[in-house]
From TrEMBL:
Residues 310-332 are annotated as: Disordered. Residues 317-332 have a biased composition (Basic and acidic residues). Pfam families: Cytochrom_C, FixO. Keywords: Heme, Iron, Metal-binding. Residues 48-197, 227-312 form the Cytochrome c domain. The keyword Heme applies. This is Cbb3-type cytochrome c oxidase subunit II.
Amino acid sequence: MLDFNTNHKALLLTAFGVFAVLSIGVAIIPAFQLDSYQPLPDQPELTDTEFEGLHVFIGEGCVACHTQQVRNIEMDAMWGDRPSIPEDYVYSKKRLDIWRQSASLLGSERTGPDLTNVGVRQPGAAWQLLHLYNPRAVSEESIMPSFPWLFEEVDSTSVREDDVVVAVPSQFLDNPSKKIVASEEAMQLVAYLQSLKQPKMPENSEPEFIPFSKIKEAAGGGSASASKGLDGEKLFMNKCSACHQANGKGVPGAFPPLAGSETVNNEDPEKMIRIILEGYNEMEGYGPMQAFADQLTDAEVAAIMNYERNSWGNEAPEVKEEDVKKVRDSKL
């Protein structure tokens, strides 16, 4: 029997052997396995800007708190349309450097929410930038650290034409007369976050996992197609509340309120429909709103609008799916 107290050579060789076995099993074999997979057909290659954002994501330690893996359990359905598969992580053939391949950022804990599909959940650059500058500006309970070093505080007269000015509420500024400008690293990081969109499985594929709909059905929740009714409140909370807040009051100086809004309460819903479908960047004192035409169906837009037009004291006529379709078709 080995006596590690006196036989230091045996201790060293044993420790090295354990290290070698773990390295092969944890790093080398998975790396070779990953090379055998191909990206899904709808998985785009990272652009140079997004790839540099991946560097920033790793460098700033974001991977320590955020996972990018949707597990095959019902509670993870909020993070993606389906459980993750190995092909999801072959999203770039570029290497981080000469020694390291492109990282598969699975993460190990969820101190922060999973980011697998954050490019769909939070596609707006304005929200992402404000969230990075000070997370408490958009979520009072957030424990995420701020990243002010990714931004520059400048005088209004020093803002250049190509600068991206972040709409920051005055209470989060040391000097309200200053402007907050996003650095190149901040824009790269946001571009990377916006690129995180779970690609769809190819048609007629046979995945080696149980779809979320089957998990829900097995748990007694019925199939996903059991009800065609749309929950406007749930859609609002998923798509709109991060900016406009659950109470409809928005974020002063960043995102406008919906409670008491003339646009929301207008009997003619056309302007509101266009804002949701096409985005908006003409409201002084607030950041831009992204377009949702490619993310929401006509029925979903109508459901969200009806919730907003009859909540927080708002009173406005019902919007029908046909109303949204008419406005959408007018832009084709």
